[in-house]
């Protein structure tokens, strides 16, 4: 079953139930979903070998009549469109440059039965941020050096009795990461082996005490848009 088939099934109760009379003519929800997917595919940008960024802000423009019909669905339509585009991005290996937003607007210049979708441009908006992930929470690397340890003065504090107060540090120059042990009592491990200093590649897992930490590089937005 394709994504659009899943989308249609997800809205089946709404479309064939209380809202059935709404869709006797004009645009259909599945057509909006298809237009959003095309917009994401058309504007996806390859920024590195393993990173494909797609726009995160979408505006759906409909005729006044179609907009009124769609609004009768309330929040259900927006939630389904959001879920569909999120799943499509995941399937295609896309990352959004910032949190996904979808808005639907009436536009008197759009004919009934027609949908127009615009999105913010990816170009010039994407930057990269090094983060350390601990128990699912991401801690951005701020500045060139970030100390990790049990002490309250550490940049990233971990509650692990096996860690030293200033256990290790991450060096980050905006593009590359380096892990350096700071003479800790129990050492810092990568793949089960103690290391003093090692270059970090994205998604490298290292261990301090019994805590696993992951170095990741994630896209961030400069907040600039170009519609």
TrEMBL record:
It is an enzyme of class 4 (lyase). Keywords: Lyase, Phosphoprotein. GO terms for molecular function: adenylate cyclase activity. Its EC number is 4.6.1.1. Transmembrane segments: none annotated. Residues 146-195 form the FHA domain. This is Adenylate cyclase. It comes from Microbacterium esteraromaticum.
């Amino acid at each position: 079953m394709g994504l659009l088939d899943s989308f249609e099934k997800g809205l089946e109760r709404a479309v064939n139930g209380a809202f059935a009379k709404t869709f006797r003519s004009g645009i259909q929800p599945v057509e909006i979903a298809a237009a959003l997917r095309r917009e994401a595919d058309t504007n996806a940008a390859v920024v590195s070998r393993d990173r494909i960024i797609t726009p995160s802000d979408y505006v759906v423009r409909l005729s006044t009549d179609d907009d009124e019909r769609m609004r009768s669905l309330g929040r259900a339509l927006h939630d389904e469109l959001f879920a569909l585009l999120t799943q499509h991005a995941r399937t295609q290996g896309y990352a959004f440059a910032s949190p996904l937003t979808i808005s639907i607007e009436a536009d008197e210049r759009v004919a009934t039965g027609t949908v127009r979708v615009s999105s913010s441009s990816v170009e010039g908006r994407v930057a990269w941020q090094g983060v350390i992930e601990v128990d699912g929470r991401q801690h951005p690397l701020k500045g060139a050096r970030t100390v990790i340890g049990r002490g309250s003065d550490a940049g990233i504090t971990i509650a692990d009795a096996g860690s030293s107060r200033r256990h290790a540090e991450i060096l980050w120059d905006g593009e590359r990461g380096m892990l350096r042990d700071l003479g800790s009592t129990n050492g810092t491990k990568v793949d089960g082996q103690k290391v003093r200093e090692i270059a970090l590649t994205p998604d490298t897992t290292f261990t301090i005490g019994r805590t696993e930490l992951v170095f990741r590089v994630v896209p961030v937005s400069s907040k600039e848009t170009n519609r």
